[in-house]
Amino acid sequence: MSWYTEHVLPHVVNLTCGGKAMIPVRRPALEGLHGNVVEIGFGSGPNIGLYPAEVERVLAVEPSSRAQQMARRRMETRSHPPIEFVGLDGASLPIEDESADAVLSTFTLCTIPNIDAAMHEIVRVLRPGAALHFVEHGRSEEPEVAARQRRFEPIQRRIGGGCHLTRDPAELAVAAGLTLENVDRFRMKGPAILTAMSCGRAVKV
């Protein structure tokens, strides 16, 4: 992990994706969470304070030690739910098969290098009937915007810690064998190539 990725990028991501203005965007993805939740790409902990009361514990996966430090400061102000850091890589989860009541991903699927392996791991740890909850940016449904995303993606990956602009989280979930229960596609304010959003749930049948 480069110095920029470890020491600078966590602060950039916290400012752009973790501020109070993003709470209304994140909150719908957390609705219905309960029991044992695996959160991949925990980051600086922007979802702390948003988990429903039904969540019993959160198993956090986060590769950046700097982001973990930032998250621990947030954790000091909250006692519910208990949060434990359990891994560094979404593509290799140190979690038992079919032990999670949900997996949560907020602005994470775009950055995982081995996304196919990560989706396999998500499916593996989910109990039957449990769901992947997600809110992510990704490929636009507008062809002209999608074309610009493809052109700009190599630059975005360099400056954004491997962030892809053209991944579609709903498609990733279905390709991994999950059943898409719902997905809400919308645009946020800002550059079109960065603001095509998807929020939804995909269930392990």
List keywords for this structure.
globular; 7 strands; seven-stranded mixed beta sheet; 26% strand; 205 residues; Rossmann fold; alpha/beta
Give me a quick take on this structure.
This protein has helices at residues 3-17, 23-30, 65-75, 115-125, 143-159, 169-175, and strands spanning 35-40, 55-61, 83-87, 100-106, 126-137, 179-187, 196-203. The chain is an alpha/beta fold and 205 residues long.
What does this structure look like?
There is one protein chain. The protein has 205 residues and is an alpha/beta fold. It is built from six helices and seven strands; from the N terminus they run H-H-E-E-H-E-E-H-E-H-H-E-E. The chain has a seven-stranded mixed sheet. The chain is globular, with a radius of gyration of 16 Å.
Topology:
Layout: H1 3-17, H2 23-30, E1 35-40, E2 55-61, H3 65-75, E3 83-87, E4 100-106, H4 115-125, E5 126-137, H5 143-159, H6 169-175, E6 179-187, E7 196-203
Parallel strand pairs: 1-2, 1-4, 2-3, 4-5
Antiparallel strand pairs: 5-7, 6-7
What CATH architecture would you give? 3-Layer(aba) Sandwich
Approximate strand percentage: 25-35%
How far do the termini sit from each other? 36 Å
- Specify the structural class: alpha/beta
Tally of individual helices: 6
Sheet with the most strands: spatial strand order: 3-2-1-4-5-7-6
